[in-house]
Every structure is written in structure tokens, then in C-alpha cells.
Amino acid sequence: MKHGFTTLLLAGLFAVNWLSAAEKLNVLFLVSDDMRPQLGCYGDKLVKSPNLDKLAARGMVFNRAFCQQALCSPSRISLLSGRHTETTRIHSIGPFLRETMPDIVTLPQQFKNNGYFTRSLGKVYHVGIDDPPSWSVPPWHSKAPRLGPEGRDAMKKYVGEAKKIGRRLPAKGKGAANYAGPAFEAPDVGDDNLLDGDTTREAITALRELAAKPQQPFFLAVGFANPHVPWVAPKKYWDLYRDEEIPLPPNQFVPKNAPRFAATSGDDFYWYGKVPADRKITPEFGRQCLHGYLAAISYVDTCIGRLLDELDRLGLRERTIVVFWGDHGYYMGEHSWWGGKHNNYEGATRAPLLAAAPGMKAAGRKTNALVEFVDIYPTLCELAGLPLTDGLEGTSFKPLLDDPQRSWKKAAFSQYPKGGNFGTAMRTDRYRYVEWKNKKGEIVARELYDHQTDPQENENVADKPEHAKVIVELGAQMKAGWKVAKP
Ligand SMILES: [Ca+2]
User: Fold this and answer.
1) Over the chain, what is the mean pLDDT?
2) Hey, how many other C-beta atoms are within 10 angstroms of the C-beta on 365?
3) Distance 226 CA to ligand 1 centre (A)
């Protein structure tokens, strides 16, 4: 009798475990490099992004999602650690996250610690600055070429010449290693002959392997290199667009009255071949660059469509949370910044974010709620039923997935060091307010953009007397910081 009861009890326990494992939701975590929210689901009429639009139709579009710093690695480390950059203290591409946060439990690591198989394919953390404790197996990177034949030839020649004259090559991992090649190229090759297509192929194989083990929940992270410059996509994506239909931005000037050190962007775009040495971008060349950028977006869109189709084919859709994000925004000629991020403005800090979770009530809706990338960590934990780790600074936006119009964060924060100063930007419903402090912590400059009257941020109005009261209010709100802005 006693024996029978124990057996029953054990069987019951196993049943509970078995059920919870089978019911655990998987995570498909998709990231694109330097993709601004120029997608059909964000209202863009020109770009062809049918697959991300389909994901949006069964998930949610976050119209006002902000990264915490508009640069690859600091943004990714902030998101994956769930901490603002003032806490990560990583503002440049070089450092590993454990240099400043040795004992942190990252987002994928928290899934791993809770019985998930976690895997990274392609650029999830910045390439070369990965975090092995985050993953169940070492991160995988495709050996397929990132560049087209023209870029590869130019690169070979550049390396050969540098060796001949004993010139040191720029450090790898800083983007500079590609810079002898053209800024855009459209080789007539199949999708899988280039890096992102080959990463997709591997991700499909991984999904099939994971689907064969239904007792093992997974967190599969897939990172795409496009549309980071150079814009290299198979020719069929270039052929989706024509130069003459591509509009150039109307505001090719820096924001009026902005501090000079603040109103700049990075210059990596100018290192590439075919870009005029005098940095004067003609309308014709600008259209070609935009053409390349759009083609690169469509290439990534197709890659993501293949993964989502495979998820459906394997019957995993109802058991998988899908999140797609771009690591920051991007300027393509606006404010005269070509191929740029590297600042505290709307175009650099606002990035695409789509989320689809089984059972969400507001599938297919959009939200204008202010969300921050630090919110993704607690959201995925809550959706998957995992405990939150200590020290997370974001807020789960799961409630928005059911009710996109509910009252939410009062502000989103981003930071950037520039010109020896440190800038913190605060985006509220109406304003972008930026404070620049010197090394002594003194405020050396302020910026204010009124999105009600100036959505392109063409004029800094911080010094206008009529805004004096707003400046005082926003200054106090910034001092109170992200903790007080939480819903
Ligand atoms: Ca990036």
C-alpha cells in the first residue's frame, strides 16, 4: 500500500514535470544590425518587408521603442543584461560585459539556468565580444562571405598593399576591416551564398533539431549582419527597387542651434569604396545608397520569413515567443548624416521592435507606449514564466501585449558620450530633452526638441524663453531618472 502510494506520488511528480516542460514556451530571438524602423508595418510605403509585416500582423509593433545607446555593442549588452548603460558602464565597442558586471546573469543565461537550451547564431552579442556563459553551446558564426566579389577583391588588394608597405591594418571587429570594398553591392548569387542567408540555413537546421526534442525548451538567438554597411544583398533584392522612386530626406542639415559636438554622427560609412573622398554625397549617389540599404532590409526580411515559415511547418508557432529588434536606429541623409547612428537623437535611438507571444490578446495591434530595450529581458522572463533576476532595470511590457493603449512609461532614456562630455537623452510623450555634462558633472549644454511641432528634430529650442518652464520640469524629471518613469 505504502509502496503503491509512493509510486503514485512519484508518477504524479513526473507528470507535473513532464507537463511543465512540454508547456514551456520557446523563444525565437531575432536581431538585425543597424535596421531603423523602415518597414511596411511601420508605415513605410517603399520598402518591401512582407515577412516582418506578417510577424507584426500576429504580434505587436512598438512604434516608440528606444535603445539605451545608439551603438552596436553597448546597446546589445544593455538589452541582454537588462540594465541601462549608466549601470553597464559600457559605452564603446571594445569591452566584454563581464569586465564591468562579472557576476551578472544575462537574459539567455537566465533561460539556460531554468532548463532551456540556449544557442546563438550570427551577430547577437557584438562579434568577438561574446559571452560564453549565456549559451549552452559555443556561439556559431557562418563562414560564408559578408562581402560580394567586388568587395572581396578590393579587400584582398588592400591587405596586400598594406603588407607591402608595412602599414598596420585597422583593428578587426571595428567595422574597419571591410572598408576597402564598395558601400553597396548586389552580386547575382543565391541567398545562402552570403552570410545572412547561410546563417538562416543553419538556424533552420537548428530549429529542426530542437523540434525533434519537444521536452527541451529552447531560446534560439539569430543575428543578421544586414543592413549594416556595406549593403551587400543578392541582386534579386536590389531589383525590387529603382533609384528614381527613392525619395531623399528633406532635412539634410544638422539640427539648428544644436551643440556642435553633439550634432555629429559616426564616419564609418565614409571609409567604404565609391564614397566620394570629399564626403559630398550627391543626390544620385545618395539614392544608390538608400537603394542598397532597402535591398539589405528586404534580404533580412526574407531570411526571417524563412525562419518563421519553418517554425509553422514544425508546428511550433503556438509554443514559441518571437521577438524581433534592431540594435538602434540609423540615419540615411537626415541631418546630413549618412550611414550613421552614434548620437542621442530620435533617428539613432528609436529602433524597430516586434513581439508575438502565444495567447496575447492584442495580436495585430500597434502601440505608441514608450518602451526601452531594457524591458525585453523582464518581458521574456514573464512570458515564459521564469523568475526575474536581481538588478533588472526594465519593466515587463507583457501588459501592453493585451492592452496596447494602457498608460505606460513616462519616458525612455538613452545615453552617449561625445566630445569629452556625457549626454543623457530623455524621450517623453512630447519632447526629446538632452543634458550634456562634462567630466566634473556640470551641465554644459541642453537640447530640447518638440515632437508636436518638430518631429524631425530640426531645431533645438532649449534656449528659447518660451520653453524655460518646460526645461525646468524636464530637468527635474531627468534628475528623478528611469526609476520614476516606470509605469
Ligand atoms: Ca548596430
Assistant:
1) 93
2) 18
3) 9
State in Å: Cα 373 to ligand 1 middle.
14
Within 8 A by CB and 6+ apart from 386, the residues are 110, 111, 114, 380
How far apart, in Å, are the Cα atoms of 270 and each of 35, 276, 281, 292? 18, 8, 10, 15
* 72 is an active site residue: yes
Average pLDDT on 13-19 reads 44
Residue type, 101: M
Question: Which DSSP string corresponds to 180-236?
Answer: TSBSEE--S--GGGSHHHHHHHHHHHHHHHHHT-TTS-EEEEEEE-TTSSSEE--HH
pLDDT of residue 337: 96
Q: How far is the CA of 155 from the centre of ligand 1 (A)?
A: 22
Question: Does the active-site annotation cover 84?
Answer: no
Question: Where are any strands of DSSP class E within 252-363?
Answer: 320-326, 331-332, 338-340, 353-356
Residues 290, 293: Cα–Cα separation, whole Å:
5
Q: What integer is the mean pLDDT of 196-200?
A: 98
Phi, psi of 16, rounded to the nearest 5 degrees: -65, -45
Could you tell me the distance, in angstroms and rounded to a whole number, from the CA of residue 71 to the centre of ligand 1? 6
pLDDT for 172 equals 40
**Structural domains of the chain in order of their starting residue, each with its CATH number:** 25-147+186-409 (3.40.720.10)
How far, in Å, is the centroid of ligand 1 from the Cα of 32?
A: 8
For residue 174, the CA-to-ligand 1 centroid distance in Å is: 11
Q: Which three three-digit cell numbers place residue 102?
A: 562579472
2 sits in which H/E element = helix 2-23
Q: Which one of the listed residues 67, 84, 91, 126 is annotated catalytic?
A: 126
Which residue is catalytic, options 72, 289, 303, 381? 72
Give the angle 118-122-123 at the CA atoms, nearest 5°. 100
Span 238-267, pLDDT tens digits:
999 999 999 999 999 999 999 999 999 988
